[in-house]
């Protein structure tokens, strides 16, 4: 790797987007599990 090449790390925007997607996936997973538990207890 030459010193003039840009670093391999992703740009700040991409890192923020990936973090947002991880949070959204976590919230969605918890929401689905909670909904399944509530609907499972429904008579």
UniProtKB/TrEMBL annotation:
Keyword set, alphabetical order: Membrane, Transmembrane, Transmembrane helix
InterPro entries named in the record: MmpB-like
Pfam families noted in UniProt: MmpB
Domain of life of the native organism: Bacteria
Stretches that traverse the bilayer: 24-42
Protein name: Integral membrane protein
Gene source species: Streptomyces asiaticus subsp. ignotus
């Amino acid at each position: 790797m030459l010193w003039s090449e840009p670093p391999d790390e992703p740009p700040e925007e991409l890192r923020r987007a990936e973090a947002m997607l991880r949070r959204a996936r976590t919230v969605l997973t918890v929401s689905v599990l909670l909904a399944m538990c509530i609907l499972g207890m429904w008579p």
